[in-house]
Amino acid sequence: MNKNQSLPWDHPRFRSWIAVARACQLMQSVLTRELASLDIKPPHLDVLVNLYRFEGISQQELARKLLVGRSNMSMTLPQMEKRGLIERRGDANDKRVLRLYLTPEGRHVAEEAMAIQTALIERTLSATPIEQCHAMAQSMEKIILALQAENVEETESA
Q1: Res 61: pLDDT
Q2: Cα(first)–Cα(last) distance of the chain, in Å?
């Protein structure tokens, strides 16, 4: 490494970068621990919440919302189906499309998981003024857009 090359920790925004990464890691860790009583993990929660909100969504739409590839879906959905949390049904208009639905057990687990998630959000952010929460969300959304653009560029050049 040459002396003219800048080091990550010398960058004025490095502290923000690390804080975002650490917050994300810790949030996933705590959420994983708290969801363990329901025998689900955060990726399962993401699926359950989306099916709760958008019942009948296609597998492709769900993958797009969750920013995951088909391989992630092809691993996660069968596990959840086998456990009786979701069911896949063919689309009435297009037999190539599978639509996803919560089972009664899946709805029950989704509701319990959302209560756990909501309680964690409340414990974590209740001392932060709502205006600051909105500003933090806007900042994170800008980071998401920048990283999505990087991801698109990488995909297009491959």
Answers
A1: 92
A2: 28
